[in-house]
Amino acid sequence: MHLAHLVDIQCKQHDIRTIIDLGAGLGYVCQMLHYLYSYQVLGLEKNKENISKAFIRQKKLYPDSLHKVKYILYDVTCDSTDVIESILQQEFPDVTNVCLIGLHACGDLSTSASKIFCRMNSAKLLVLISCCYHKLSISKSVQIPMQEKQYFHNFPTSNCLRETIAEYNFDVGQFLRVPFLRLACQESADKWHSMSKEKHDEHAFHVLARAVLELYSRQHNYSLNKKVRKGTRKSQCLNFQTYIKDSLLRYDLIPYNLALEDYATLTDRMIMQDELEKDITQMWEKQSKRLKDVEIYTGLQMMLQLPAESLILQDRLCWLHEHGLEAIIVPVMNKCVSPRSYAIVSHKH
Question: Where do the domains of the chain lie, and which CATH numbers do they carry?
């Protein structure tokens, strides 16, 4: 809703009536833009199942939009400009001006969207909300003692940041790594600060309980393998005893270098689960005194989230400026509603 409102305001200013959604997902934004504001929308999505669900939902709920909202199976990359132009002309002939949008454009999709916008003649407006910075593709990885240096294809992107790094001889591979990018994706300090004491206590418990499970597995040379899509269910965890029982039902702790099919019989696993539950509970009893520390570290993490995200967004903004494009960062929604609450808006004359 918030993104759709921003897109409508921007498109009206530039007399644009056609939108291309890069990474359309299940098509919610596409349908909203047509239903609320009568735009014709081309949704590009790489996941075949998402496209199928979007089309089924469209036929059921919005049958009148079938000629105005089109979903196309396509994996957008930085080299997709010509293909997207071709798809656009096929689906919406004679359209000359379009707006490119991306809601929670994950990983490399955000930087690809900016490059496509720069090269695509018919694209006059870009409205982009990024997410999942830590999923940027790694160009080079170097193992050093106690750490892995990581370098990315699409970060830094601007000459401004690259030159600043070079001037101070700063090795970004040791600091601006996946953990830094993941930090930029965290919840905002605003949301953390507004939590009640009960919510803080609940958060501390789940963070430390998961950490104890991870610590135990590492110390005993186990790998944690999910047996289901979602690991531990918070709704089932009233205390650590119920937490670990639920976790051991939903994870396999498998010794490294041992295939799952070779990992004990069902009876042996049940015996081992009892032993694991007892051992991990003992570790929890030793570590549970750190519950207050968890929220202190979480607070410090939240304080660093905004500067980390700001660096990434400013880098992308500078890249657009360096390519002769006007661009600004616009707050779109309350950070407590969505942690990714800033959009980059750019337009061509």
Answer: 1-131 (3.40.50.150), 138-185 (no CATH)
